[in-house]
Amino acid sequence: MIPTGRPRLVVLALALAVILASALATGCGRRKFEPVQADSTSAAMSPDSFSIRIREVQSIWETGNGEEASKATATLILQDFRIHHAIDPNFDWLSRANELLDSLGVGAELAGDRCALAANFFERSDPAKGSWPWLFTCTTKSIDAQAIEGRDLRMFEVESRGVPPERGGPPPGVAALFGRRGSNGYQPLLMEWAKAANGSWTLKKTLGPDSLGGFGSAEFQPADTTIELVARTYRPIPRFDECATCPHVYGVRRLRWMSEGFVKVEDRTMPSPYYAFVRFVTALSLGDREMAEELATDREWVEVARREGFGESRGNWRAAPSTDETAHEMVFLRGKTEAWRVAFAQMGGDWKISGITSTTQAID
Length: 364
Hints:
Low-confidence stretches: 3-35, 37-42
Structural class: alpha+beta
Number of strands: 17
Mean pLDDT: 86
Helix content: 10-25%
């Protein structure tokens, strides 16, 4: 699960269980950025004109052309934002966008705040059809908008720096945390944009499973002078079958937003009983008795495991249903008949195997 409870994240129209499906076959590719050219906003639109624009946008959504409809929606929001900006430069972007989208009946995920707000538009009646993200940002005098990469993904969080730019401040940048749905849950995906000479935002970097660790969760952690991304993720383990809700070997990766982009400052595996058992079985399969003994409180348990063929290829291991990955005792199943109750003891900051007894698969 990717955290979604941050104060600056507003998800419209759908509960978090709704999946914006579609593997990113083309969405991660670089697209040409064309900032919206809105009309002058020196005067507000009349209520009748605004109602006409709303009906026009709704009609485009009804045609099924999501990309064109999202552009029309973004254009209308931009025009409305610019009108409000002329009256009150400090107005609440999130609240205003929420109000306007409700009047349109358009589905969207909103993330960010005033001066850097991303909207991930989708058809409310058919969210799985796709999504189209847009970015609204402050300039020194007004507000701009443009389409950004991240099509057909879930959007979770947005952070920015140097928007609008300040003398002596960091270079302007926007970072968005997306999620791509896979067989084992969500894969966090980070995208970072930089300001180009022509004023548009260009994609600077994309970090996916190779950099963030696979399936799991991620979140931004802003501090006074820094912004960090922390990912808690896992990858499939050889010799083990793991469902989305099963125990996993989790890694923690922390990246800090530096002038050159997001730089990894921490990469560690989280200790757990499950991780201890995975290492124990792996050591036995490699014939590494010394490593196996280091993972047990007594050599007796290494002898039991060797005698029972824990390291042999008799099928994949799997944790019994509803197993707590941090429990002091876990049941592991293999094949159609084997079942072992394994006890663990916490020693220092790690876990070791402190007992192995045969049991029954009736629990399955």
